[in-house]
Write a structure and sequence with these properties.
The chain is an all-alpha fold. The protein is about 60% helix and about 0% strand. The structure holds zinc ion (ZN). It is a multi-pass membrane protein.
Length: about 70
């Protein structure tokens, strides 16, 4: 009929690897955006929002949001 579904163990393992890899790349991408030129021209917008809430994470320059989406694919 169709492809077999992965086991719960396979799903949990893949999600675990995904979260680690995704967090790793987000950390280094964010860190790279703190270079002088990137911070002054692009990343500064992201740090204008000082409250540590979820809505602040995507508050960024359009170029930063676009670059994050491109690098994730
Ligand atoms: Zn930053």
């Amino acid at each position: 009929m169709g492809l077999p579904m992965p086991s719960a163990w396979e799903v949990a393992a893949q999600l675990g690897v995904y979260f680690v890899v995704e967090d790793y790349f987000n950390y280094w991408l964010h860190r790279a955006l703190h270079c002088r030129w990137c911070y002054e021209h692009v990343h500064r917008v992201h740090h204008e929002f000082t409250a540590p809430i979820g809505f602040a994470a995507p508050y960024a320059h359009w170029a930063e949001i676009t670059s994050h989406d491109i690098f994730k694919f």
